[in-house]
């Protein structure tokens, strides 16, 4: 499948469904050896997968190395993706999580042993609403709506959803109570949804 031959998503599909279908189509193209499709998959998913790697691994360089390995795996094994068994993001996130955990285990001799609880915080379910919107065709509108938020809220949402920080990590980073961070992000997402639906 060439880069220009992907089927359009149905007009009645939600932005999240359309983004999921687009990603599934690009993965099918990767399975047929389409390098442009692999670049598309990277552009659509690398921020989320890098966030997963960063949660599990001790430093950024290791996470970057694992992310490269993830996309090499996708290139070699894209034909194994089955949309009837998992959404594309869930399939990709599983690869990233497994590669990151394998790398962390291999580093055990070089770094002090640490708990793997961080891996349990990485969701197995499909991409969230914000990630779905980001991957949809209205990414420009999402950016415009993010700009309407105050700087503190916008920064917290960006760190949580694009950099992959957990609420606990955000609370520590910003020296704020955990409940305040959760409320800040929840209110910001409500405002974002209202802006996007307007």
Detailed description of the structure:
- With 198 residues, the protein is mainly α.
- The chain folds into 2 domains: 14-137, Orthogonal Bundle (Rna Polymerase Sigma Factor, Chain: A), CATH 1.10.1740; 138-198, Winged helix-like DNA-binding domain superfamily/Winged helix DNA-binding domain (Arc Repressor Mutant, subunit A).
- Helix content is 68%, strand content 0%.
- It contains 10 helices and no strands.
- Helix 1 crosses helix 2.
- Belongs to the sigma-70 factor family. ECF subfamily.
CATH superfamily label of the largest domain: RNA polymerase sigma factor, region 2, helix turn helix motif
Q: Based on the structure, what is the oligomeric state of the protein chains?
A: single chain
| Total domain count | 2
Number of helices: 10
Under the CATH scheme, which class of the largest domain? Mainly Alpha
Distance between the termini: 36 Å
> Structural class, judged by helices and strands?
mainly alpha
Largest beta-sheet details: none
Instruction: Report low-confidence residues grouped into runs of 5 or more.
Output: 1-6, 111-120, 122-137
- Roughly what fraction of the amino acids lie in strands? under 5%
| Number of beta-strand segments | 0
Helix content: 55-70%
Give me the Rg, rounded: 18 Å
The helix/strand order is HHHHHHHHHH
